[in-house]
Design goal:
This protein is about 40% helix and about 10% strand. By secondary structure, it is α/β, with parallel strands linked by helices. The strands form 2 sheets. A 6-stranded parallel β-sheet has the order 6-5-4-7-8-9, sandwiched between helices. A 3-stranded parallel β-sheet has the order 2-1-3, covered by helices on one side. Helix 9 links the parallel strand 4 and strand 5. It is elongated. The relative contact order is 0.11.
Amino acid sequence: MQNRISSDDSSNEGVTKQSTFSRGLLNNKNAVISLVLALSIWFIISTDRRNIQQWASIPMYFGTITASSKAMVNAIPVNANENKTIYFSQARKDRSGSFIQDILMCHAYSFLHNVTYGGVCFPPEQYIREEHLPLMKSVGLQDIFPFSCPNVTAFPNSKIIPDSIYRSEQYFTRNYLDFIQRQVHQYSPLSNSSKPSIGVHIRRGDVFLCSDDVKRYLPNSHYLSLIEKYSSGDGTHVTIYSESQYHKRRYFESFKEFSGRGYEVVLDGDIGDVWKGLMSSNVVILSKSSFSFVPALLAKGKVVFTPFWHAPLPSWDIVDDVLLNETKVEFQRLRAKFCTSSSSSTSSTDDYYDSE
């Protein structure tokens, strides 16, 4: 506005200077107000971040939780029901399979009791494994299972429930599985191709033939027998998902037993792609691992289950006793051949199929 006032107009000179001073004072006042507001917002976010996370976490009201404080503030509800009962689960320190399986169990328990699931709560001292969130995003679970903790101030009926209440496969009802499967199947399954598919997860990595944790190990022959049983001939596409040699441990059994038969072998693949591959297979053959147990829960194809400490779903095929006995004999033969007495002395093959 100043450049519109003539410099030689003496009658306006005082007005121009006064106007400039007033505007400067006003701008300074606005700047101070803006600074105070900014500091207030920063203080609220810094001291009450866990509450903001809680507000942002409840799927029924708030949408997707993000790592951005601004996004979480914008997600604060307008018409939240403060009397709503909200359950949370305590984050486990396990790898992704067990971590997400525990969340699924709590979510299924909440679903059965018509209670909102608020999310999985990490205590301040516990770090989040870097693979957890990308894995959940890869199958579409990040909106359903936010990372958040109870805010009893805003929601008095929000609480973490002990895992002893919800850790049971009985809560994976048909209604719940239909619901959760609709959330994750957002890609084209292999079952749409001309060839039927079998996805096989073989637990290796930190589990090997001579390890103390022998109950998790299944010999190659076990998987080969199941593939032969469920294969429809040369037209079946078989994919083996596993891990390569763990540190300097020897596996003694080679994956060439699978690749030599024309099966595709994927080692150390992206875990999100592995889950999607298993979930989209016509037949899923599980290992003794939560890593394959979780995508089996989300899969729509046939699931083949070898007994271990998790209970199978009623619709799954259970490996029969004949093959289990053959597997146990082969396992003992391999241990006697390759494992020294010192490496196997802490574990007995008698408890090979016992529950933990």
